[in-house]
Every structure is written in structure tokens, then in C-alpha cells.
Design goal:
Largest sheet: 3 strands, mixed
Bound molecules: zinc ion
Number of strands: 7
CATH class of the largest domain: Mainly Alpha
CATH topology of the largest domain: Neurolysin, domain 3
Radius of gyration: 24 Å
Strand content: under 5%
Oligomer: single chain
CATH architecture of the largest domain: Orthogonal Bundle
Number of helices: 25
Shape: globular
Number of domains: 3
Structural class: mainly alpha
Strand order of the largest sheet: 4-6-5
Length: about 600
């Protein structure tokens, strides 16, 4: 095994059995106890100076607690079959849960402070660096219960809604599929079957997708029970915590007003014909009268090119260099400092991620590189996250993580840089077409499709209020919302009625999906500004990333002239998609 392709976690701890790691857990716990002793029931009476000291202490604590947990996470992601890693990961999860409950009081006491003294603290210049953190906490004031109630809810959720999530995960991961490929019967995981949606053979694509969905249908009792429970749990949360609409808690956390989210969704819906236009064009490119929804990601005949990892690395770093030398240098630091785990292997986590660490620890990337163009694009994406985290390291711990609507900014922007760079260097029209199609399909998947998912989720929660939803009702909602996107441009295959049952976002995070739509359109808009302003845009963009989570999304974006509450802003993003489709048409 080439050791350069594995990440090096020794800068964190020498090994999972190192005494330094044991000490980190022990010291973390005793620091939490000391912090609790010092501040419990006293937060409301603190002066600005004293609160500043408490917040700094809280941050130091959070950083100290994060380090061993992040280390445990990385080791488990790299090899989940090792017993040592499993034990460490479980220990870390229980440690995190307990420490979280021990520290709950601090946030709650800030939330419950009287309005007048709180406002005085908020306006104190000493606390300016924490103003955003304090404001975000206070937004939940009328939705928060007492410490005892919060702690009980959190503890009981382990056997409540979280148990249903775990059941969903375990059953989904255990499903195996038998498919005949080129005369040979093969046993496959869900991830492998869904990867066949990119296979050149239309019959195989449809059979693979159908097999996958029918297996889910066989478990319809389980899946509809899990979905109903998640929805019932959420409606109880809304009631207990005084929320109106099912999306309100998510929107509050995202710091995006509900009418802005609604406008994002309506603008997306009014652009569905754009997606349909592309689907018709793709059918033409594939020589089909009409696409089935199993054909949407079909490759064009000429996109099977393979890249070595070294080639991929150079392509990504050079794409960033075309934007700025600093970005290229940050991108390359992952490879130079061995903070990337490159190749797939048994027991390693699937997919790809960038693990943002803390302001004093550099981020790590996990990839499953197999050498195709999508993998190269994934590197550009994850490296983008990494650059975002590294630029935000000038923030302190409580201000380090970007807010959700901005979390995918640098990643998607990086993919755009790579696509543009490849298009510019390419002379073969067929390859250009493939590149453009890949980009357009990506945009459709992160905007329109996520909008369909969000509408499904919204209806599921609203209709669950009227009573239990049967599997066939869930299927009907799913079919209707998807039908709006596909229109008569794409024929949905019959088993797709159960397409809702495998989307884990519905189970794990309420209304997460629209943040993809939001992020993609934001990036398209930023990219358009870059095209117009070139050099002068770079420092503005850099500052947006370096802001981390220190300000609201609206404040962070203001210097770029972006106003999310303006529906025209979302339309700008779709206009760029239209331009890409026009560019493709010229090559057809
Ligand atoms: Zn991402």
C-alpha cells in the first residue's frame, strides 16, 4: 500500500492506545466539571467582562473536547472493522453525549436571561466577537424548555426517535441486491447498485434501479413506520416548543426567514421547465425518444476516461491556481501534509467528506477515488470545504463553523472552477459535451431535485397531522411532487413510487435538503460575479469564507452585494443554468 495515499493522524495522537489520548478524555471531563462548578446557576449575573471570560473558557473547553472525538471519528471512518477503533468510537460517542448534557446549562442560562440585561450585554463592545453566537442562541428563547426537561428529552430520545433512525440505518445498510450483469449473478450493496445509474446500458440502469426500489417496497411496513414515527415526533416537538410550521425550527437555525425559503422554492418550481428542456436534450444526445428517470445520469458515450490520482491532484490544484495562488497552496497542503485518505478499501467509510476540525487543527479529507471524472470533481469539492475551514481558522471555536446555508459555498465553487478549467483546456467537442452535461446534471440534482424532496417532506409533515400515513399515501405524495419536475419530459419507472423510502435526510435532519438548493444557487450567483469582476472579486470571496460562522449569512454576503430576500437573486442562479444549457445546445 502506498502510504502517501493514507492520511497521517499522528499529529493528533501517536496511536489509539497512546496515554495522551486517555489523558485527553480524563482532562476534558474534569475541565467540564470545573466549568460547571464555576458557572452553573450564575450566568445571568455575570458582567460583560465575566461573561467574556466564561465564553473564552467555554471555547477552550469545546476545543479540548473536540480533539479526541475527532480523532476517534477519523480512525473509525478509515477502518470501522478494527475492534480497537470500534471501542474508541463508542467511547467517544458516549463521552460526547455526557459532556453535552453537562454543559447544557450554559446555553440555557444565556437563553433564559432577562431581556434587559441581555440586551445590555449584547451591545457591550467587549462582547462584540460573540454577538452573533449570543443572538443565535436567543432566537430559540421561546422554543426552549427547562434544563431538566431538555436533559430528559435528550436522554429519552436515545430509545425514541433516535432508535428509529438507527433502525432505518441498520436495515438500509443490511439490504443486499442480486443482479445479473453480463451473464454473471452478482451480490451488491445499495451504494454499488445505485452507482449503476451511471452505467452506459439503459436496460441495466432500469433493472438496477427497479431492483433497488422493489427491495425497499418489500420492507414497506418498516419504512412507513419509521417515516410516520419521525413525523409524529417532529409534530410533538413543534407543539412542545411552540413552533407553527414544520420548517420553522430549521429556518430559524439557518437564519433564513420562512418567506425567503418559500420564495426560493417557488422560484425553483417556476424553473422546472428548464430541467425538462435539458432532459429532452439529453434524450436526443442518447438517441432515445424520451428519458426514463433511470436514464437521467446516463453517461454519454465518450466520458469513460480514467485519471491517476497524481493527475487528479494536479488538475484540482491547477484549477484553484487559476483562481488564486493562495487557494492553490491551501489545496495542495492536504496532499503535502498527508491529510487525505485516498483509496477505497473494505471497512472504510463510503462516499467522501472533509472533516472540519478546530481553529488550531487543520481539516482532513476522506475520498474513495476510483479514477473517473466524477472522482476528480469530488476532490475539487472536498478540497473546497477544506479551504473554507482553513480560511475560517482565524475565527475562534464558537465562530469557526460556517452556517448551514453557506456550508457548501467553497465546495461547489471549487467544482465550478474545475469544470471551467477543463472546458477551457478541452478541444474535443464530445468531451466538452460530457463535461457540460455532468455539470448541468449536478446542478439539477442539487437544486430541482432537492426542491422536490423538500416539498415531499413538507407535505409528509403537514399531512401526518391528520393521522397515520399509509405507505401508499407516502407513495402518492412522492409521485405527485416528482411528476411536477419531470412533466412529460421524463417517464418515471413504476417502482419509483417507493423512491422516498431510501432518502436518509428525511430521517436524520428535518428539511436539510433545501440548503443544497440554497447553496448551489448562491454559488452560481457568486460565480457570475467572479466572471464579471475577476481580480476584484477574489478578496471579497476570500472574506466570505474567512467569516466562518462569526456573522449571519446575510451579513457575510452583503459585501458581495448579495441579498437573499430578493427573489431575483435566486433567479440569477437559474439564469446561469440556462446559459450552460444554451452552451450545450451549440455543441449538439
Ligand atoms: Zn459538500
Amino acid at each position: 500500500m502506498n502510504s502517501d495515499l493514507n492520511w497521517d493522524t499522528t499529529p493528533l495522537y501517536p496511536s489509539p492506545s497512546a496515554p495522551e489520548l486517555t489523558r485527553s478524555f480524563e482532562e476534558g471531563a474534569s475541565q467540564v466539571a470545573a466549568f460547571r462548578e464555576r458557572y452553573r446557576s450564575k450566568v445571568a449575573g455575570l458582567s460583560a467582562e465575566a461573561l467574556l471570560e466564561a465564553l473564552r473558557g467555554y471555547e477552550t473547553l469545546q476545543e479540548a473536547l473536540a480533539k479526541p472525538q475527532l480523532y476517534a471519528y477519523l480512525l473509525f471512518a478509515a477502518d470501522s472493522e478494527s475492534d480497537e477503533n470500534k471501542r474508541l468510537s463508542q467511547k467517544s460517542a458516549e463521552f460526547g453525549n455526557l459532556m453535552g448534557r453537562e454543559l447544557l446549562f450554559f446555553d440555557l442560562e444565556i437563553i433564559q436571561m432577562e431581556e434587559e440585561p441581555f440586551q445590555a450585554l449584547l451591545n457591550d463592545l467587549l462582547l462584540a466577537p460573540y454577538r452573533h453566537f449570543l443572538e443565535v442562541l436567543r432566537k430559540f428563547k421561546s422554543h426552549t424548555l427547562t434544563e431538566r426537561e431538555e436533559s430528559l428529552l435528550s436522554q429519552k430520545s436515545l430509545t425514541g426517535v433516535q432508535a428509529f433512525c438507527r433502525l432505518f440505518d441498520e436495515v438500509s445498510a443490511s439490504l443486499r441486491y442480486t443482479l445479473e450483469i453480463e451473464g454473471e449473478k452478482r451480490e451488491m450493496t445499495g451504494e454499488e447498485v445505485l452507482a449503476l445509474l451511471h452505467h452506459p446500458d439503459a436496460e441495466l440502469r432500469e433493472r438496477a434501479f427497479g431492483t433497488f426500489l422493489k427491495r425497499h417496497e418489500e420492507h414497506e411496513i418498516l419504512f412507513s413506520a419509521v417515516f410516520n414515527n419521525v413525523a409524529l415526533d417532529h409534530s410533538q416537538e413543534l407543539e412542545l416548543r411552540n413552533y407553527g410550521h414544520p420548517m420553522e425550527p430549521t429556518n430559524l437555525g439557518n437564519e433564513i426567514p420562512t418567506p425567503v425559503v418559500e420564495s426560493l422554492m417557488q422560484v425553483s418550481e417556476s424553473n422546472y421547465p428548464l430541467a425538462q428542456e435539458y432532459f429532452r436534450l439529453k434524450a436526443q444526445l442518447l438517441g432515445m425518444p424520451r428519458l426514463k428517470n433511470s436514464d437521467v445520469y446516463a453517461p454519454l458515450s465518450d466520458s469513460g476516461r480514467q485519471y491517476s490520482f497524481d493527475e487528479a491532484r494536479v488538475m484540482v490544484v491547477e484549477a484553484y491556481r487559476g483562481f488564486s495562488a493562495e487557494f492553490a497552496q491551501l489545496a495542495d497542503s492536504f496532499f503535502l501534509e498527508k491529510r487525505v485518505d485516498v483509496l477505497p478499501r473494505p471497512g472504510k467509510s463510503g462516499g467522501a467528506f472533509c472533516m472540519g476540525m478546530t481553529p488550531s487543527l487543520d481539516p482532513y479529507l476522506l475520498l474513495n477515488f476510483t479514477g473517473n471524472l466524477r472522482d476528480v470533481s469530488t476532490i475539487a469539492h472536498e478540497v473546497g470545504h477544506g479551504i473554507h475551514f482553513m480560511l475560517a481558522q482565524r475565527q475562534t471555536m464558537l465562530n469557526y463553523h460556517p452556517p448551514l446555508p453557506l456550508a457548501e459555498t467553497a465546495s461547489v465553487f471549487g467544482e465550478m472552477l474545475l469544470t471551467r478549467q477543463l472546458l477551457e483546456n478541452e478541444t474535443d467537442n464530445a468531451v466538452k459535451r460530457s463535461l457540460l452535461c455532468a455539470k448541468i446534471e449536478d446542478i439539477i440534482a442539487t437544486t430541482f431535485r432537492q426542491n422536490v424532496l423538500t416539498r415531499f417532506e413538507e407535505r409528509m409533515h403537514l399531512e401526518r397531522k391528520e393521522g397515520l400515513l399509509t405507505a401508499s399515501q407516502l407513495c402518492d405524495i412522492w409521485w405527485e411532487e416528482n411528476g411536477k419536475l419531470y412533466g412529460d419530459a421524463v417517464q418515471m419507472i413504476d417502482p419509483y413510487r417507493f423512491g422516498w423510502s431510501y432518502i436518509s435526510h428525511f430521517i436524520h435532519a428535518r428539511f436539510y435538503c433545501y440548503s443544497y438548493t440554497c447553496a448551489e444557487l448562491l454559488v452560481l450567483s457568486l460565480y457570475q460575479r467572479y466572471l464579471k469582476q475577476r481580480e476584484s472579486f477574489i478578496p471579497i470571496y476570500r472574506d466570505i469564507l474567512a467569516d466562518g460562522g462569526s456573522r449571519t449569512p446575510a451579513e457575510t454576503l452583503a459585501p458581495a452585494g448579495i441579498v437573499m430576500s430578493d427573489p431575483g437573486f435566486w433567479q440569477d442562479g437559474y439564469d446561469l443554468l440556462r446559459d450552460l444549457i444554451e452552451e450545450l445546445k451549440k455543441l449538439v
